[in-house]
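Exercise 3.2. Students should predict the tertiary structure of the chain below and write it as structure tokens, then compare their answer with the key that follows.

Predict this chain's 3D structure.
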Amino acid sequence: MDFDVRRFSIEVTRPTEAEVKSLTEFLPPGTSVYFSAVPTVTPKELVSGAALLRKGGLEPVIHIAARRILTVADLQNLIAALRAEADVRRLLVIGGESDTPGDFFDALAVIQKGRLREAGIEEIGIAGYPEGHASIPSDKIENALDQKIAAARAAGLRVHIASQFSFSSDAIVAWLKRLRACGISLPVRVGMAGPTKLTSLLKFAKRCGVSTSIRGLASGVGAALIGNVGPDDILAALSAADGIGETAPHYFSFGGVMQTAEYANAMAQKASVGAVA
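Answer key:
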């Protein structure tokens, strides 16, 4: 089976001790929890949050926003703290937003110059865009993806793709098939929104430039997501698709991390029952 709903991951922001304790009631041990590096989060918060996740038996995957890190030394110090306090071995390396980048102009620069493997990192995630990027031409996105994969492999790092969220199952499946047709066989964490109100979905879609999804949601194609219902249609489409390679859900917790975790676990258990049957 190409798509496995049971190997899901979720994304959190500033997890608290109480939140992590509650998460462990829903998430299987070792579940990958991506800690989002929003612009206001501090290195200290990244380290303490990662430590809470590790203590809870979960696998912290820390976002590294390239343009917000001033120097190579700053990156090395952050990774050293993450390794010491939370045994972090996996990162998601993204460009991030900043008008005044330091030593790292983009994610590729972090992979090439960050000495990640030397610092104890074993695997990185890199970004994918099922609906393209609002400000980057598609050919540049494709070239950058190839360069990042090559640089990661040259550095001795395992690599996977974590995609921007989308509400369009057609766009996701088509994008995955294009990746595979181009010879990219990496595991893909497919971004999708956990249970969230329609108004919130539209807000996040507009903010992130997910144009196809906005059109679908606004025209009623996303009606199944109205209220606090999860992306059942996307999960079903991916489960039925052929030729999409090794893929799994990556849930963005726009509607709340506990609600997202409960939904993700319910879908995984449902799939497990179906597999046994």
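Discussion points: Residues 50 and 60 are 6 Å apart (CA to CA). The domain at 5-276 is CATH 3.20.20.220 (TIM Barrel).
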